[in-house]
């Protein structure tokens, strides 16, 4: 993002606000450290609370009810945020929010529900691989052509996922393929929602706060209607009444950290770019997996490690494909700087005697 110039001819700093805190006067390094630290703090707590809730015996079938509670909190946060803004008028048509809400429900509801049937690290690995449905959908629906690097990245992610899942099925006595189906469907919805959100925000010029409020409030109604029709609302409600702290109490922390983490990542993307943001969130997911093995007892095999590294390779091949020119230039500059590549000397015409 190009920064404006001040009257003295120097480039002015880009204004960075994190809620009511002004980070503009901090150095670039300190801004990065603050945003990265907060990303780790909020999302590590988010992941820990999500797994902790599903460790409650008997809670496995109630993932949709947890999503209902989460959407209720997000709606309240969205209302509170909108109250402090001057422009309260809705810019995106309701018909678009009906689609966005459906995709949001599918992404988060299926993802939350899958935790009850999957080893948590497996769920996290699947969530790293959004490129797979995006690439397949682009080929089948839009007839897009992708580079060899993109296809290689997709293959790496696919192979890594298969190997990670096979390792999971070998060491986990309660491995359930239903969980794999749920997280795969969530991944497809997640792959679609990003494109729809980006197109809608650009087309109508709406704020993130507006999109959060309407997507989650309409999504709340979708889930409520679905739970009432399926008969799943009352059993979940009665179960949570018996365990209010382990359900509603933990869900407050789960929802608050998820909501705050979302805004930190958006700020990170805006200030440092998608490459830095993906690097930070990928490292965060790796730490989440490590902490899951530390805090929650589960079998471990080294196949988890190297199959996870294959997925990470796929992620960075995808990033390289999108930033090939800038990465190549940076790599050449690095190699020249540290003498890894000798510069070729060319004789200029005026130097020839």
UniProtKB/TrEMBL annotation:
Localization: Membrane
Transmembrane segments: 32-50, 62-84, 96-118, 124-141, 148-166, 178-196, 216-238, 250-269, 276-296, 302-321
Domain of life: Eukaryota
One GO CC annotation: Golgi membrane
InterPro entries associated with the record: SCL35B1-4/HUT1
Broad class of where this protein is predominantly found: membrane
GO MF annotations, alphabetized: 3'-phosphoadenosine 5'-phosphosulfate transmembrane transporter activity
Membrane topology designation: Multi-pass membrane protein
Assigned keywords, A-Z: Membrane, Transmembrane, Transmembrane helix, Transport
Protein family membership: Belongs to the nucleotide-sugar transporter family. SLC35B subfamily.
PANTHER family, alphabetized: ADENOSINE 3'-PHOSPHO 5'-PHOSPHOSULFATE TRANSPORTER 2, SOLUTE CARRIER FAMILY 35 MEMBER B
Name by which UniProt lists this protein: Adenosine 3'-phospho 5'-phosphosulfate transporter 2
Organism taxonomic ancestry: Eukaryota, Metazoa, Spiralia, Lophotrochozoa, Mollusca
């Amino acid at each position: 993002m190009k920064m404006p110039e001040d009257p003295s001819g120097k480039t002015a700093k880009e204004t960075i606000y994190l809620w009511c805190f002004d980070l503009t006067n901090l150095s670039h390094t300190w801004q990065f450290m603050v945003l990265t630290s907060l990303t780790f703090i909020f999302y590590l707590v988010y992941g820990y609370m999500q797994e902790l809730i599903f460790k409650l015996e008997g809670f496995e079938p109630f993932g949709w009810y947890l999503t209902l509670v989460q959407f209720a909190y997000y709606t309240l946060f969205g209302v509170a945020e909108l109250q402090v803004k001057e422009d309260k008028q809705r810019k995106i048509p309701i018909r678009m929010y009906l689609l966005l809400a459906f995709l949001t429900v599918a992404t988060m509801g299926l993802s939350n529900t899958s935790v009850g049937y999957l080893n948590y690290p497996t769920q996290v690995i699947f969530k790293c691989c959004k490129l797979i449905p995006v690439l397949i959908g682009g080929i089948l629906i839009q007839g897009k052509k992708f580079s060899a690097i993109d296809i290689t990245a997709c293959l790496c992610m696919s192979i890594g996922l298969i190997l990670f899942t096979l390792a999971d099925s070998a060491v986990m006595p309660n491995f359930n393929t239903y969980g794999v189906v749920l997280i795969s469907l969530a991944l497809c919805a997640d792959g679609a929602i990003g494109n729809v959100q980006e197109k809608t925000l650009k087309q109508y010029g709406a704020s993130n706060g507006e999109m959060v409020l309407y997507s989650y409030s309409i999504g709340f109604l979708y889930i409520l209607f679905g739970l009432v029709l399926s008969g799943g609302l009352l059993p979940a409600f009665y179960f949570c009444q018996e365990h209010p702290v382990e359900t509603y109490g933990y869900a407050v922390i789960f929802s608050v950290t998820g909501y705050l983490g979302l805004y930190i990542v958006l700020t990170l993307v805006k200030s440092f770019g998608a490459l830095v943001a993906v690097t930070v969130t990928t490292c965060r997911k790796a730490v989440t997996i490590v902490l899951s093995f530390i805090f929650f007892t589960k079998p471990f095999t080294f196949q988890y490690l190297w199959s996870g590294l294959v997925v990470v390779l796929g992620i960075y091949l995808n990033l390289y494909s999108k930033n090939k020119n800038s990465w190549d230039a940076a790599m050449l500059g690095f190699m020249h700087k540290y003498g890894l590549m000798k510069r070729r000397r060319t004789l200029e015409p005026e130097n020839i005697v």
